[in-house]
Specification:
Layout: H1 2-52, E1 57-68, E2 74-83, E3 98-103, E4 106-116, E5 133-143, E6 159-160, H2 182-194, E7 206-210, E8 215-219, E9 223-226, E10 232-238, E11 241-246, H3 252-270
Antiparallel strand pairs: 1-2, 1-10, 2-3, 4-5, 4-8, 4-9, 5-6, 7-8, 10-11
Amino acid sequence: MAAFVRFVFTVMIVGMAVNLAIVLLANAQSQRRQDQQYTRQAGDFRTLVEEIEGHVRRADAVVEAQRVDARNQVVETTLLVRQYHSTGTAQSRPLPVVRIVIPGDQLQAGGLMLEFDRMFALDMDEYAMLRDRQLVFFGRFCGAGEEAPTAPGAVDERFTFMPRDQVPELVRLDPEAPQASYFERKLWEYLWGLAPDMPRNATYPWVSGSAGHGLKATWLEPATIKVRPTHTYTAYVSPSGITLAEDDVGKAGLLDEMMKEGERLEMTNDK
């Protein structure tokens, strides 16, 4: 009887040891796959940075609707805005159209420039691909004179291409994926921690430096233009600043395309 009990006990111990070994092996394989995936994501981001570093970025805007008062003065404008994943003047990789509403008819485009020196993230070698590089982004598209709320937890109703604590869509490895990759989320959590918000009523360009981390964030001088229906507008952001201008005649195709995107956006929101 004692021998049988010892046998059963031994079988149990061996079974537990085998199960533990299987779990440990599975965990090790899973961690290895995650490490490999993270390395691939870092490599893909390096390639993206090399493609966009220092380049001009483009955004298009059209007026979808305007509301006027009894004196025929514009009191509110609804616009469709789209930026491009491609660089320069190319429109080959459009990002989704967004709808914004501004008071009046003065559209303002703002931007952010990030400059990384050789001292950037010395404690994070995985981000070394950003050292000695310069990246520019569109920030907010809003009405001229609009200011962000300052109360804690308040939501800025103006549309922004740079939502704080999120990965900017412009540098997503896969803009169509439901969410950014782990590498991207981890990187931008680190970057946002080094780049404070611009204080209200600060003068442009507003520069914030992160001593010891090698990152300089500059909110560029915004560009403003009066907008009107049936016209198209193009904004460019580059290390030298932001431009926002009405397009020459002949952009009817862009207008039609953007308005169709706006209709699809409305149908999507209604679902």
